[in-house]
Amino acid sequence: MRFLNRNREEVNPGAERTASRIAAQIIRWKICVAAKINRRVNRYTKAGQRKFLWLFCAVWIAVICFNFFHAQQTKTIGSVRPDYLPVHIGQPSGIPEPNKKPIPRTDSLNTKK
Q: Fewer Cβ atoms within 10 A, N terminus or C terminus of the chain?
């Protein structure tokens, strides 16, 4: 692998220092958030934690099922008349009306100026 064997002589020390500060701040933030969550969770007994987990899973499954069945009932694609042909280059993109004369199919290759 060539990217592992590259020489890193052209390193900008200012960019390296900034990147290490940002990484250290992210790690400190993650540790702080994890400690707060652990303190909050450890207030409850194991049975209470288990009940909360089951409640969270049940709500999550209910939301997923609701979204699935709701998506099944909604109509996403409008119905198209069976006599409608696909759009050709040079034709309007709307559905042609039955009483009007059809527009001749033209494109830039067969139109003379």
A: C
- Is residue 90 a contact partner of residue 106, using CB atoms and an 8 Å limit? yes
Domain that holds residue 53: 46-73
3-state secondary structure of 10: coil
**pLDDT tens by residue, 13-59:** 888 899 999 999 999 999 999 999 999 989 999 999 999 999 999 99
- Cβ burial of 111 (10 Å; 0-12, 13-18, 19+) is exposed
Place of tokens 């288990």: 50
The residue written with tokens 């590259």 in the block is 6
8 A C-beta contact, residue 96 and residue 82 = no
Indicate the pTM of the whole model. Answer: 0.39
